[in-house]
Amino acid sequence: MMRRMATNVVLAWGLFGMGGSALAATAAVQAKIEPALLSAVQLTGESDFVIFMQQQADLSAAAAQKTRADKGRVVVAALKTEAARSQAGVLAELAARGLEHRAFWIANAITARGSLADIEALAARADVQQLLKIDTRLPQLLPATIARMPERPTGAKKASAPAVFDVAKALGDTAEAGVKLINAPAVWAMGFKGQGVVVGDHDVGVMWDHPALKKNYRGWDGTTANHAYNWHNAFGALDLFCTDPVVPCDSNGHGTHTTGTMVGIDGDNQVGVAPESKWMACRSLLDPVLGVGTVPTYMDCMQWQIAPYPEGEPAAADPAMAPDVISNSWGCLEVCAPPLLKATNDAIYAAGQVQVVSAGNDGNDGVCSTVAFPLAVYESSFSVGASDVGDEMAGFSSLGPVLTDASLRLKPNVTAPGVDTRSSWNDGDYNTISGTSMAGPHVAGMVALLMSSEPRLIGRVADIRLLVERTANPDVKTSNTASTCGGTDGTTIPNNIFGYGRIDALAAVVARPQLSVKITAPASVKVGEDFSVIVEFMQPASGKIDATQVLYDVNLLGAQVLVDCIGCTSNVEETDRSFKGMFERVEPGDSDSIELVMRATTSGELTVTAAAEADQVSPVAPVQAKTVIGSGSTPTTPGVTDPSAGRFGGGSFGFGVLALLGFGALRRRRS
Predict the structure, then answer these.
(1) Of 351, 474, 593, 662, which is most buried with the most CB atoms under 10 A?
(2) Does some domain include residue 153?
(3) How far is 443 from 440, CA to CA, in rounded Å?
(4) 341 and 253: one domain?
């Protein structure tokens, strides 16, 4: 006892002898070290940790890019540039101290292992924001480190795939119940089956040559397999369960199951929502029993998903090869370093990739605020709860609001089928299991259908999320779970039980932004007669989001006319017979228009053609209207006063139009 007291006295005198600035400096250094890390290193002498850098890349420029590939290039360039600039000093110090480490650019962070002295020295650096505890060792298969959402087996028997494909059943007669419930077969019947879209699976791996998956694997050309850019194993040569890290594998079955729900099809085994999408995958979860991972392996996969590269060739990373939508049926339940994973997740969002995340299986028949673990807790994640095919919430499905970051954020965003879901398995057969792990891939597959119905939605994460949310079916029953969470119940939409509701692929596809063009023109006029042609650009009332930056292109062919445009936007580009401009937005059920006020100077046929496109709408096929211009009148010569000449009379042509219309941006065209 005396020895302890003596030690305390010495410590006290030491503190009192320090200057105020030294005390402040020590407190600032200590504040950068997560308490859990401090405890771990004091207990064992060394600990794994991540150095989260003070400066993070500005990714805002990506929002102006039109395509997902361009967004990805801008994001990756910004992330790499910032990491190279700001990590140099820390990397040099780590090397000087002889500490093993690995740098990541996706979140501007460095993982390392060191002593208390190492940690304190790094925390004292001005370029370091925070040091957080993680585990970079291979997991020891302990329950405390379970990272994957554990599925709930139902005991249902597996069923082998039939050898013959039945064309008569090709549009959903034998689709799985969850696939039918979200109306995917009705979307297939419209011709949209996920074609042109790449889905990514971030999980325990995939049996790539499963009969339901092989033909949709992006690395399979029908003859040979090429795994470059299509597969990544975050464990590399250290993988204890996959002998060749270059070849896709699944040591558990979980990843093969989730991929099957997104894209799987083999004859009557229509287990996938988007059966013509291509898939790629990354393995960051390891063992065949629990499927555990670590923060570095999660980061490794997310960094690869944003810019894939051939195994062992990170310098060849190419954002153009990234997936359009990613299914993440896992949650980080071990030491997760939330700021790190949040920054990583936000980068995926900025790159234009839809990050679909399972909400978790901790609902326990009604416990609120159980959406508690990364990635599901983040705003940049599209988090998914589970319901059954009777639209009854699953009792295991995690509920909001999010309390772990004190945000009270509403979660989940939506719900999808996740009870008794049958899909492909890693033995080449099929298995039926339950969990939010099964719900998430339904959403990812639906997103692929939506993208295939309108390719310009690819890369537009906010638009896609709004479409899925605003078309979800809110008639979800909640007898298996809490009636109220976070002050919202099942009658309030959205709520912390099932979000906006159970997803509906058909409703979302029908509600996608669409444009139509209508031209109203007289059938005939005489030379010298004033007439108008009105061109309208409309979005149907069935739409659920605005069409933005609507570009129009109107052209005149044939007979010669004098033209003035009313309603042409200020950014209009004109030639003698062409009007191009942009409306900021056209809302659902609304329209915008321009009016071409004309006077024919020659007889003949005048053809007006008009086309349109938007951020979310591919170019609309041009429409046209024809007006026959007959002789029988002599056109008024511009510049000659003629009070009877109508719109184009009165003094000079320009002055007359300006006086009559009362607007300053006069546009006169002779043809």
Answers:
(1) 351
(2) yes
(3) 5
(4) yes
- Amino acid sitting at position 69: A
CB 291 within 8 A of CB 204: yes
**Predicted pLDDT of residue 569:** 74
Asked if 124 and 153 sit in the same domain, the reply is: no
- Is residue 19 domain-resident? no
Helices (H) and strands (E) counted in the chain, each on its own, are 15, 26
- How is residue 563 written in tokens? 């033209």
pTM for this prediction: 0.88
Q: What is the pLDDT of residue 572?
A: 64
Mean pLDDT estimate for the chain? 86
pLDDT tier at 158, thresholds 50, 70, 90: very low
Q: What DSSP string runs through 596-659?
A: EEEEESS-EEEEEEEEEEBTTBPPPPPEEEEEEEE-SSPPPPTTS--GGGGGG-SSSHHHHHHH
Q: CATH code at 207? A: 3.40.50.200
C-beta separation of 476 from 501 below 8 A: yes
Tokens of 419: 């009870």
Determine, yes or no, domain membership for 222: yes
Query: Domain for residue 7, yes or no?
Result: no
Model confidence pLDDT, tens digit, residues 476-523 = 999 999 999 999 999 999 999 999 999 999 999 999 999 999 999 999
Strands 604-613 and 547-558: antiparallel
Q: Nearest Cα to 227, choosing from 313, 164, 162, 338?
A: 313
Sequence-ordered list of residues with C-beta below 8 angstroms from that of 640, at least 6 positions apart, any chain: none
Bridge partners of 536, per DSSP, are 518, 593
Q: Is the dihedral of CA 481, 483, 484, 489 positive or negative?
A: positive
Shared-domain flag, residues 505 and 520:
no
Amino acid at 555: N
Same-domain check for residues 57 and 199: no
Q: Which domain holds residue 525?
A: 516-661
**Claim to verify: residue 427 and residue 548 sit in the same structural domain:** no
Which of 141, 99, 120 lies closest to 26, judged by CA? Answer: 120
Give CA–CA dist 101/368, Å, rounded. 39
The pLDDT tens digits of the residues spanning 238-273 come to 898 998 999 999 999 999 999 999 999 999 999 999
State whether 535 and 617 are in the same domain.
Answer: yes
Is it the case that residue 128 has pLDDT exceeding 50?
yes
Rounded to an integer, the average pLDDT of 41-65 is 95
Q: Terminus-to-terminus CA distance in the chain, angstroms?
A: 104
Catalytic annotation, residues = 203, 254, 437
* E strand segments, 33-77: 47-53
The two three-digit tokens of residue 183, written as one number = 């109306």
Rounded Cα distance, 569 and 665, in Å = 10
